[in-house]
Structure formats: structure tokens, C-alpha cells
Amino acid sequence: MKTILKGKSTEVVIDTDGPVIIIGESINPTRRKKLVETLSQNNFEFVLELAKSQMEAGADVLDVNVGYPRVDDASLLPETVKAIQEKFDVPICLDSPNPGAIEAALKVIEGKCLINSVNGEEKSLQTILPLAKEHGAAVIGLVMDDDGITHDPEKRFRIAEKILGRAIQLGIKEEDVVIDPLAMAVSADPNACLVTLETIKLVHDRLGLNITQGASNISFGLPNRDQLNSAHMALSIWNGLTCPIANPNKITTLIRATDLIRGKDDFAMRFTEHYQKMEAVK
Ligand code: THG
């Protein structure tokens, strides 16, 4: 299964049989005070710095989330996307729970983006899927619905199936649906990662779709987050994760290593190239 995303002219192919594609997570105000401060002043310099540093570290796509208390993201999200795309030729993952912000950003975005996200709630399916269809965007489907979040992988799988079915009904191609199995903090629930890993496997084996997850979520509240995220990342990739939302400055080496180990990197070209690039900027 191949999901194609586009920037102004670059094309990124997320391929279930290919190497892992990295969606850079860092343009997100969660615990980034400086991002909130600069964005509140309509100053995009720091956003552009974050974009550049993530692309240099191996991000193929940039997640853009500008949600913080009292923000008008229906105006800030499109402005931020414009600022990034004026400077960088990179596909965007539009990350907002506000359909108004998603719609406004879709109007100014260049290329083919990934909408983050729809879920199995009736209201979400009815507002987000038509936007994806109208703008020819791909869409992330979160496996939660009107009953909330289930901890049963079979039930999470059935929500993925429902989202896919509804997308296809509207004429969205199956390759443009990317499933998110919901990565949650393992500090709060000892089985959180196991449920996610099982869900990835079910979606991979039975639907063959591309799969993403907010990979850094799992380590909230714990020390040594980078090592914990790395262990979870390797296991997730082995089960079928193809396009994690993660911090490339911390995770790309692990991802290149995992791809090499599972036979997705002939003659260790990508692994070696990344190593040399990182040595050069030391
Ligand atoms: N699924 C989907 N989209 C998502 C998530 C998901 N978008 C948001 C989030 N979850 C993924 N993005 C992040 C971004 C940052 C962090 C975690 C997840 C993070 N930041 C550090 C912190 O909070 O301590 C700060 C920055 C850093 O040091 O790197 O952990 O699940 N579809």
C-alpha cells in the first residue's frame, strides 16, 4: 500500500513495504513555551527553525500543531503552514482537533497533505472525511469513537475498519487512510503499549494500511524518555508502523538501524548516509 504526500514539488511515498517515513512532531506547543510566545506575536522564526532542524535530522513530513489555550487556530494554522511552505518544500500533516482550522489550512496548503485527524465519532466522520475528499488529502484515522477509548485491540481494529469503510463510501481511496492505533502513556497504564502494538499488528495483517502514531506519547511522566521511546519504536515498526509522528532529532538513528535490520536498506546506504550527516554537523 502506498500513500503519496506532496509538498510544492517533492513527493513522499509512505509504502507498507518500504523504509519508515518520519513525520516530525516538534511544531507543537506542548511544553514548548517559546513556540507559544513567538506564535502569539505572529513571529514564525522559531517555527521555521524547528522545521529546518527536523528536516536536517531526517523528517520527511512536518506535523503542524498550533493549539494552545485561547488561540484562534482557524487563522493561525493557515498562517503557519504558509510560512513553512514559503521556505521549505515539504508535505504537511495538519494537526488540529478543530475542523474549522483544518478547513482554513486546506485552502492555502500546497501539494497533498495528511489531515490529523478523523476518528470513529459520527460527528468527526461527517465533518472531516468530506474535507479530505474535497481537497484530495490523505487522512489519519484515530481508533476511538462515541464510546471513547477502548483497551481491547479487536475493538480498536473494528473502529479502524469502520473509518476505512466510511472513507471508501465517500470516494476516498483506501491508500489515503492512515490508521493511528493510539499510543498512550505507559506510566498511567502498564498495558498501554501492548494494546497499541497488538492493534498495529491487526491493522497491518488484516487491512494492510499505512500506520502512524504519536510515538513520544508513551513516555510521558517517566525518566529516560528517549530510550523508552526507542524500544517502543523498534517493536512498533516490526509490527507494522510505517510513518510515526516523532522527534527526528532523537529517533532517526534508531529508525535507520531498525530499517537496516529488517532488510529495508540495501547495503546500509540510508543508515550510513545518516551517520555521516550527523558526524558532519557535530
Ligand atoms: N496521534 C496523532 N497526532 C498526534 C498525537 C497522536 N499529535 C500530537 C501528539 N500526539 C504527537 N506529538 C507530540 C509532540 C511532542 C511530544 C509528544 C508528542 C513531546 N514533547 C516534549 C515534552 O512534552 O516533553 C517536548 C519537546 C521535546 O523535548 O522534544 O513529548 O498520538 N495522530
Structure, explained:
This protein has helices spanning 33-40, 45-56, 73-87, 99-108, 122-135, 153-169, 192-206, 225-239, 248-261, 269-281; strands spanning 2-6, 11-15, 23-27, 61-64, 92-95, 114-119, 138-142, 177-180, 245-246. The chain is α/β, with parallel strands linked by helices. The strands form two sheets. Strands 8-7-6-5-4-3-9 form a seven-stranded parallel β-sheet. The radius of gyration is 18 Å and the shape is globular. The model has no long low-confidence stretch (mean pLDDT 97). (6S)-5,6,7,8-tetrahydrofolate binds at residues 25, 28, 30-32, 65, 95, 116-117, 140, 180, 183, 212-214, 216-217, 245, 247.
What attributes characterize this protein structure?
single chain, 282 residues, alpha/beta, 10 helices, 9 strands, 14% strand, binds (6S)-5,6,7,8-tetrahydrofolate
Please give the oligomerization state of what you see: single chain
* Proportion in helices: 40-55%
Q: Supply the helix-strand structural class.
A: alpha/beta
CATH topology: TIM Barrel
The neighbouring-strand order within the major sheet is 8-7-6-5-4-3-9
**Structural Rg:** 18 Å
Largest sheet: 7 strands, parallel
Give the CA-based shape.
globular
Give a brief rundown of this model.
With 282 residues, the chain is α/β, with parallel strands linked by helices.
